[in-house]
From TrEMBL:
Signal peptide: none
Keywords of the record: Membrane, Transmembrane, Transmembrane helix
Name this protein carries in UniProt: MFS transporter
Domain Major facilitator superfamily (MFS) profile: 41-444
Organism: Pseudonocardia yunnanensis
PROSITE patterns: MFS
CDD domains: MFS_SV2_like
Length: 453
């Protein structure tokens, strides 16, 4: 079912239309003019990505401290965080699923607010059990933040700017890594790791920003009005806010594999899984690798991490421009090739200059494609099931990815270094590009309604 743009305003859209912010984006991705509301939505998504980047990077930076403070082994820590990743993977389905039912905006607000609460609780953790429980709950809440924010952005920004804005917003993940690196240098090293988690907790104010300045997705509002009208079988839908039981009706997982949609769902799953597994290997273990193999101090690898994040952020801009100018495939091909030709000399390097130069270049390619990956996967699902589709896509990729850090640790134990594990990433990305070339599915520049089945 596609959205009927000519239908009379339904009760939900009538209510939302009283907001000027909603009026500014009511044409959705078919619009041409950018307004302040579009930028507010883009900024909200970017700050959400920054929050995610800080949290993931902080964990990578504090691994040596967790081992010492809680007197646990690296195997025990990896096993616990693997369980955390397993639960977070299911949460990555829950939040977009919820966004399909209660709205993109409300799900985004609840998600970020809860993340901030549990980030603050990490600061007072004094035992391993308390830390891992609070950290796991925080990861469960933050797991869907980027997917929900991406839904709102995809459905409001003009189609011709879709990859650029998602890439620009996603680039703030890199700046989140920068902030984490600064926290490692100026907070963790002199004062301890706990206080560093107050930094991302402050970004919880993003929930207030979204509440005041960002409207609901017009695509979701119209889709919900039509669903409620169809469910009413000709009866008038009340103008009041729909009951929760009405709001939670929506697409099922089975519909993702119906004729005409099934191929696109499998492509989304394939791209998300290969991208996630590639990132987990390097993103989780790079700082520890520099400390263990090359003897870098906390301050040294934190400083490297700062510029590593900047390099990744710059990669987003190039790949986002290529994705909107030519195609999503060319953007991912460019980023993957840059990564492949630079990660090999980095993993084998022994001198500091090579570790810096090739390390930054490799992240420019590896992380730079993620804005395009998020754009690409969102475009593969129609509005009525976009949240459910994105949720199941990133849940499956998360489930496949959670074992990657442990597998990389196994390779390290077997070979004496993480080098071999890092050298397996190019193989995975080559497989990804072969699969995309065979699938030949690309929707650069097309509106969501034109894509939908």
């Amino acid at each position: 079912m596609t959205i009927d743009q000519t239908a009379p305003l339904g009760p939900l859209e009538t209510r939302h239309s009283r907001s000027q912010a909603y009026q500014n984006v009511k044409d959705g991705d078919a619009g041409e003019k950018l307004t302040s509301t579009h930028w507010h939505i883009g900024i909200a998504l970017g700050l959400g990505w920054m929050l995610d980047g800080i949290v993931i990077a902080l964990y990578a930076l504090i691994v040596p401290y967790l081992l010492e403070d809680f007197s646990i082994t690296l195997d025990a820590l990896t096993a616990a965080v693997t369980l955390t990743g397993f639960l977070s993977a299911f949460a990555a389905y829950f939040w977009p699923w919820l966004a399909d039912r209660i709205g993109r905006r409300m799900a985004f607000i609840v998600n970020v607010a809860l993340s901030a609460v549990f980030l603050a609780l990490i600061v007072v953790s004094e035992s391993w059990l308390f830390f891992i429980i609070v950290y796991t709950i925080m990861r469960i809440t933050i797991a869907g933040e980027w997917a929900v924010g991406s839904l709102l952005t995809v459905e409001t920004w003009p189609a011709k700017h879709r990859a650029k804005i998602l890439s620009a917003a996603r680039s703030l993940y890199g700046y989140g890594v920068v902030i984490a690196g600064l926290a490692g240098t100026f907070i963790i090293a002199p004062y301890g790791w706990r206080w560093a988690f107050l930094v991302p907790a402050v970004i919880g104010l993003l929930a207030i920003y979204v509440r005041l300045l960002c409207p609901e997705s017009p695509a979701w509002v119209r889709q919900r009005d039509q669903q409620l009208a169809a469910a009413a079988q000709g009866r008038t839908v009340p103008a009041a806010k729909p009951r929760l039981s009405e709001r939670i009706r929506g697409a099922s997982i089975g519909q993702l594999f119906e004729s005409g949609q099934g191929k696109r769902t499998f492509v989304a799953l394939f791209v998300a899984a290969t991208a996630t597994m590639s990132w987990y290997t390097l993103g989780y273990w790079a700082p520890f690798f520099l400390k263990e193999t090359h003897g870098w101090s906390t301050a040294e690898y934190s400083t490297w991490y700062i510029w590593w994040g900047v390099a990744g952020a710059l990669g987003y801009y190039l790949m986002g421009w290529i994705a909107d100018r030519w195609s999503r495939f060319r953007a991912m091909l460019t980023g993957n090739l840059i990564f492949i030709v630079t990660i090999i000399p980095w993993a084998l390097a022994t001198d500091t200059v090579s570790l810096w130069v090739f390390g930054l270049l490799s992240n420019f390619g590896l992380i730079g494609v993620w804005g395009t990956v998020m754009t690409y996967t969102a475009e593969l699902f129609p509005t009525r099931m976009r949240g459910t589709g994105m949720g199941i896509t990133w849940t499956v990729s998360g489930l496949l990815g959670i074992g990657v850090p442990y597998a990389a640790l196994w390779v390290r134990d077997a070979t004496g270094s993480f080098t071999a594990a890092f050298l397996l990433i190019p193989v995975l990305l080559v497989i990804q590009m072969i699969g995309l070339f065979i699938a030949r599915v690309d929707y650069a520049g097309r509106t969501l309604d034109a894509i939908a089945t």
